User: What shape does this take?
Amino acid sequence: MKRFRIHSLLTCVLFFACGGSTKADEGMYPISELGNVNLKAAGILLSAQDIFNPADVGLVNAIVNVGGCTGSFVSSDGLILTNHHCAFGYLQAASTVEHDYLTAGFFARSLEEEIPARGGSVRITESYRDVSRDVLSAVSDTMSPGERTRAIAARSRKIVADAEKERPGTRAEVAEMFPGKSYVLFLYTYLRDLRIVYAPPRSIGEFGGETDNWVWPRHTGDFSFLRAYVGPDGSPAAYSRANVPYHPEKFLKVQPKGVGPEDPVFVLGYPGRTYRHRTSHYLDYEQKIRMPYVAALYDWEIAAMEDAGRKDRSVALKLDARIKRLANTSKNYWGKLQGLERLDLVQTRRAQEARLQEFIDADPGRKELFGSLLNEIAAVYEAAAHTAGTEAALDQLGSGSILVSSASFVLSSARERAKPDLQRAPDYSDRNYERTKDRLFLSLQNYDHAIERRFLTELLQRAARLYPDHRVPELELFLQGGDREQAARSLADTAVRRSLMADSATVRRLLADPPDSATIHRDPVLRLVNALEPAYSRLREAREQREGELTRLFGRYVEVKMLFDGKKFIPDANGTLRMTYGKIRGYAPADAVYYNPITTLRGVVEKTTGQEPFTSPRELLELYRKKDFGRFASPELRSVPVALLYNLDTTGGNSGSPLLNGRGELVGVNFDRAYEATINDFAWSEAYSRSIAVDIRYVLWVTEKIGGATRILKEMGL
Assistant: This one.
């Protein structure tokens, strides 16, 4: 494999300005900006080149993206350490009632016993370069916002295609760093053969369940080991028994002595999305409209699935990963809503914007360029609020129903695959199509008739309850009659009884030989989705128009905001490689309350009730009774440390990120934030922004004492 190289270093584009260092407490720093960070002052005993070296190997060569999470290589044979919740879907797909790896855990005693992580892949950043000028050459001032969005997307697809043709075997992606201003082309190596090596029992990996999710103190052993494989010639390849372990250019050294309070630490990873450079109008829309609707609907869906799973473990196995995904989002949204209210963030942002408007109005030149900017942004969100109910009905129908999702894919495939490759929607392009199909068939594997009937009925009835001027005209044809909700119930019942869109063989056949009008008419879900296509087309066009308008407006907003503040901005997280740093540190979430930053095995035992989600393996309780902590006990705590709290700036996507000490040694695995820190995506504060890792000493203790997986420890040099 080739070493990590930079085709063209970014200099000023990410910050819009050059020179000087930026305050290091808040920030998910793009890896190109490490030279602007005072690492020594942060207690990091490494140079920027030790972490990232364009001409050689650095720590970042050990950091990987694993299915939307982060992981790190911890051996020369492609062993990856990440979170249990990141491997959860792989464990579910491999589990049966007879071999329930989710509940019991899994350990492969040899390479031959390692089992495929179905649908999994590993992405390794190889290089990046600024393509802002190239992307923006596709737009002109005469374009409408929708045309601008489509032009940027088309140009980005062409850049990606050219890059992948130039570098066969790599995957490319154009990432927007600042709206309408800066774009970066990233090149990645994709490893498509990922296997499960060791996962602890669910009672350890998910200890505390949703009760403790987004909560401190925490006692969850949220870790798992995977392994990346390649073909015998060392090139990326699909799963094959002939494949061999991947040999990374860099892997992390584990520090079994761990860390203590106020020790410096840092994280490297792939944080998802943050929205700190958005206006009060965006925050208001999120607080009043989108997040409450989604969180409440997900809570209803979770309750329905948990009820079904309690009666039958085979049903629960189908639904577990879906429940976990929705529950994580729901609790995150409720936490953000609480944070928005507690911080009065919308009003705070409005006050800042009032001062910004005064600054704009004070200068004729600024007023001419930016005078109406905030009002224009407000108008976009006012229009979005008016159509929010219709959009939510269509969105949730497409994502909440497996039948509708399957039928949509069949019909969209027929439509999109008939186009030239560069004109197709991303999921249907040649480079993505097989992976998109794999995701669909994994969802069909987890299909349950009773849950589908409940979900589809609820989603159709929600659409039926919309105010008349918000209803979907195409859906109204299916809801005729006196009782609209009864009509919705009947439609859902017919769909579940008669549709073949949950049958994998039928779906595969229709993907190979697209359905004709007679086939569409015979299947009630195909007929429904086909009838709704004009509504979804209008929705896509409206969103392209909105995205184009907001891209233009937010680009100008950041520009004038930088003039007003007189400082550089760190770009919002966007799934690309970042670094954040700070210290192991507790906090005070409420009056007269202070949380220490390290929990121990004692807390696991004290929380254990024998009832879900606070159960613990018998072996763990017995080892604690004997005080058998082995070499992984903390002398100061006289127990095995379990979880760590620190003031780093993280968000979704940082799950599985390695927590590193000042020497770059692995001391933990990031997996969560404190409840008060769910607001991180909108605003960061030293007072409440805290992230959580499982302590490496607990990872090693569980792996050795509970899993008996000594071969893993030996492989890591222990």
Summary: The first strand starts at residue 29 and ends at 30. The chain has four domains: 32-252, 278-386, 390-560, 579-709.
